[in-house]
Amino acid sequence: MCKISDFECVSYFLDRADIIINLVPGNIRAAVQNFQGDHDDPDTSQKRIFSARMYYQESLRYVKDLLVYLQVVDPGKLAPYIEWVTFSNFNLEYAFKVGLVPCLLYDLSTEICAFASATTLVIHTCLSCFNLTQDGLGNSRVQAKSHDAASKVVSTALHIARLACVSKYLLSGDNGANQMDVVKTFNCSYSVQKASVIIARFRVAASSIAKQRSVSVNAIGDISVNSYTFKREIYSKLIPLLLSKFREILGKSLSGKNSLSTL
Fold it and tell me: Are residues 66 and 96 in the same domain?
């Protein structure tokens, strides 16, 4: 049998994300979705339930980048899981059944970081909020993504972590305290709490930036501003209409030589 790669295991796992999530009870999905967050974040009081995404292409790219990052920066965290997939009798179905991918992601999500430091997951997610660009002269520079784009990156990371948590919940094998401990440990972890705060602040920052307007004029003179269109046949009559209204209103309050009849 051909050896499989850890990337194939990730794809196999994410292709079944909606099935996994639908197997989890609603109270657990609600507990995973909510978080303490920032004291200044009004969204933390809203109740939501963790649901599957329609598409997982972006999530797949993120996890692949995370695996590459681990291999380069901290291969020790990845080594035990790579050893699994190198066994000759290992296959995708078995990797999915034993929870190879969610166990790795859950361990990264609940990692305890050193004092004045950050977890591997948080560091990688923050680095993913930047792009390495070329200026055409062979020079590279680091450029931050927009607040909206960065928020989506962190949201993807948090969704993947939550998916790992509910998968770990199903893998715990009983209906007792072990399952609830999985969720409690996850919700209290540094990575989850930090990611939640980062998302909230990115969204606040994005909402405070003025949006650039798109203005265009077509062949017949209609003016379009973003998604709104001002018809020429309407706005061309606006000034005469306003003048008529002014004469009507002011004419009633003026008389004699001060009348607006000569306008």
Answer: yes
Q: For 144-185, how does the pLDDT look when each residue is reduced to its tens digit (9 = 90+)?
A: 888 888 889 999 999 999 999 999 988 876 655 667 788 888
Q: What Rg do the C-alpha atoms of the chain give, in angstroms?
A: 28
**Within a domain: residue 12?**
yes
Using DSSP's 3-state secondary structure scheme, residue 133 falls into strand
pTM of full prediction above 0.85: no
138 shares its domain with 252: no
Same domain, residue pair 139 and 229: no
CA distance 166 to 224: 47
**Tokens coding 238:** 């606006």
Neighbours of 100 (CB within 10 A): 21
The three-state DSSP-derived secondary structure of 224-263 is EECCEEECHHHHCCHHHHHHHHHHHHHHCCCCHHHCHHHC
